[in-house]
């Protein structure tokens, strides 16, 4: 089965399992989504959703976030990974939104990536989930499953993103990246996974990947 046929079949299964995948991070608007995604690096969505209500109660917009000190922000997000760095980035990001964009989150991926603490994946999530612009954010689940299923060689995240954009139609990208995340979490763990019983891995996993995983790599 070639890569395109494999992607088409995977897409049909994912659409059946997750026809309307919800955004896992609680938010109200582009700004609160941006903050939540920035907090989610090396942290579970569950943990982010636990800390953001108190954070957004004090700083629901760039103006109020910029007025908080870094220490105040840190006290509200202390339980997430890399909290000190994230607190500095959140404050600096809010200041730049006020200075450069009139306090609005820009619907432009380059402008988003120019903000402190905002990388390509974070910017891509905001573009597709807040502004409904085609993007294919690649997180760790997507990166490993694309390699496991032979949709990409897995050399790096940028290559995985480019490969997935080639095999999935553009009008599916927004839902497809969420579907793969949910499938990875619920059906396709990184370790101790029985590929033969998986609804997708049982036929999509590459021979190389099967050998590597059987050796515990």
Write up this protein.
There is one protein chain. By secondary structure, this protein is mainly alpha-helical. The protein has two domains: 3-21 and 137-214, Endonuclease Iii, domain 2 (Orthogonal Bundle), CATH 1.10.1670; 30-130, Endonuclease III, domain 1, CATH 1.10.340.30. Helices cover 62% and strands 0% of the residues. The protein is built from 13 helices and no strands. It is elongated and about 55 Å long.
Topology:
Layout: H1 3-17, H2 30-39, H3 45-58, H4 62-67, H5 70-77, H6 83-101, H7 109-113, H8 120-130, H9 140-148, H10 157-167, H11 173-186, H12 201-204, H13 207-214
Helix pairs in contact: 1-11, 2-8, 5-6, 9-10
Oligomeric state of the chains? single chain
The portion of residues forming beta strands comes to under 5%
Based on CA atoms alone, the radius of gyration comes out at 19 Å
- What's the architecture of the largest domain, going by CATH? Orthogonal Bundle
Q: By helix and strand content, what is the structural category?
A: mainly alpha
Spans where pLDDT lies below 50 across 5 or more residues:
none
**Molecular shape:** elongated
Task: Please describe the biggest sheet, giving its number of strands, its sense, and whether it closes into a barrel.
Answer: none
Amino-to-carboxy terminus distance? 25 Å
Order of helices and strands: HHHHHHHHHHHHH
Helix content: 55-70%
Mean pLDDT: 94
Count the domains. Answer: 2
CATH topology of the largest domain: Endonuclease III, domain 1
């Amino acid at each position: 089965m070639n890569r395109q046929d494999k992607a088409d079949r995977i897409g049909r299964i994912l659409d059946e399992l997750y026809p309307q995948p919800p955004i896992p991070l609680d938010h109200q608007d582009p700004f609160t989504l941006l903050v939540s995604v920035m907090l989610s690096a090396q942290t579970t969505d569950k943990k982010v959703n636990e800390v953001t209500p108190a954070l957004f109660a004090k700083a629901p917009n760039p103006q109020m976030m910029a007025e908080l000190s870094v220490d105040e922000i840190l006290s509200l997000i202390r339980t997430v990974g890399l909290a000190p760095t994230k607190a500095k980035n959140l404050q600096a990001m809010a200041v730049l939104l006020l200075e450069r964009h009139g306090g609005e989150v820009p619907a432009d991926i380059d402008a988003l990536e120019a903000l402190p603490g905002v990388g390509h994946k974070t910017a891509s999530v905001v573009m597709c989930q807040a502004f409904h612009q085609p993007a294919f954010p690649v997180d760790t689940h997507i990166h490993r499953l694309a390699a496991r299923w032979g949709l990409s060689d897995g050399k790096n995240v940028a290559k995985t993103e480019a490969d997935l954009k080639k095999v999935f139609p553009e009008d599916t990208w927004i839902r497809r990246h969420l579907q793969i995340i949910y499938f990875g979490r619920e059906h396709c763990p990184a370790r101790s996974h029985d590929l033969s019983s998986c609804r997708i891995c049982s036929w999509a996993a590459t021979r190389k990947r099967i050998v590597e995983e059987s050796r515990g790599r």
